[in-house]
Design goal:
Blueprint: H1 7-22, H2 26-35, H3 38-60
Helix pairs in contact: 1-3
Length: 61
């Protein structure tokens, strides 16, 4: 299956992937924790939901 990914979706996926890496290592974990304000977290949750909806749509095809 070939997926057409917009630049925004690609950027969102890169950002989401960083969450996994950042929480694995203690130094990154502290830095990431400081970055996660309420506003930042809400913005990222919105992005994740958008990506989830997009993936679900692609799987239905």
């Amino acid at each position: 299956m070939n997926l057409e990914v917009t630049e925004k979706q690609a950027n969102d996926l890169v950002e989401i992937t960083k969450f996994n890496l950042n929480t694995r290592y203690d130094d990154y974990k502290r830095e990431f924790y400081n970055k996660c304000t309420d506003e930042y977290t809400e913005k990222q949750i919105k992005k994740i939901k958008e990506v989830k909806t997009w993936v679900e749509t692609m799987l239905e095809k």
